[in-house]
Amino acid sequence: MSLKPDKKIIFWGKIVVFAGLLTYIVHVIQQQPFDWATVQTQLRAVSHPEQWAVSLLLLTPVNWGLEALKWQILLRRVEPVRFWDACKGVLAGVSLGFAMPAQLGDTTGRVLSLRTNRTGAVGASLVSGGTQFYVAIVFGTMAWAYHLTLVPERAHTAGNWLLVLLVSLSLGGIVFGLFRKRVVGYLSGRPALRRFAEYWQVAGRYSDREIGLALGTASLRYLVFSLQFYLAMRVVGLVLSPTVAASGIGLVFLAKTITPAFNLLSDLGVREAASLWVFSPFVVSVPVLLTATLTLWVANVLMPVLIGLIWVWKLKITAQ
């Protein structure tokens, strides 16, 4: 190879990351208890499952397109980018986030997709994740409140205190949004935090309109992937009333949102465990429910991860 030493290091570093991600994806797929016999049996019992499956798949680019739109909106304060470039950054983040803890991989992929002002992009990524987190909390609060009316035995002391906590977090988000610039200014002035201030200062520069647009896009995306969950259940013949399905889906996504994504786990297992607990009072077949959640995972996570590997390879390690 006729590359310079630093470029050789970057090249082989990419090879290692790329191969590692592929190996991990294969490992995860092999570990999933995906019962193909159950899938085939259910598909034969469902009337026109291909219609539900096609609808589910068609919503996948809509889902991640909305995430890219939110990222593009928030990047305007840092480095204006085209929608397609925002899509590439989001997909690269999805791939890296698949095997890295918390929001580290997602932020890394998005930041490295930019050539300039990467420091400010870290703050924009945190705001992007924060808006989606807050939307999940708000919808999850409504879902839990309704779930307690559907399953009264869960309206015990702990269940009611959880509702109080969720309502407090929802209201706290409004308060934080109103005073976010003062909070950011205060934190930036603290001696112990001053050296990190450049990473989050962009959060205090967003206008109310920009935050509103980001929250609106996050809410629309939440509704899209909730609909995808419902479609995944219909693919395997799992039919629940709209209210039961909506509240259950809201709780599953709430659990997935508030549960830390540990390395080598991603969100695998969290969605499945939460689904089993949430829908257990409604006498749902466990294999069928697990098949639905894994179907959703394949459509909404695995496919974008595989596509995102293309953009992981094209990431630039050094900035301009």
Describe the structure.
The protein is mostly helical and 320 residues long. The protein has one domain. The chain is 75% helix and 0% strand. It has helices spanning 5-31, 36-45, 49-75, 83-97, 104-112, 118-150, 157-178, 180-188, 197-200, 208-235, 242-258, 270-279, 286-313. Helix 1 packs antiparallel against helix 13 (286-313) and helix 4 (83-97) packs antiparallel against helix 5. The longest helix is centred in the middle third of the chain and has 33 residues, at 118-150. The radius of gyration is 21 Å and the shape is globular. The two termini are 24 Å apart. The model is unreliable at 261-265 (pLDDT under 50).
Number of domains: 1
Number of H- or I-type helical stretches:
13
What summary fits the major beta sheet?
none
Q: First CA to last CA: what distance?
A: 24 Å
**Structural class estimated from helices and strands:** mainly alpha
Q: What share of residues are in beta strands?
A: under 5%
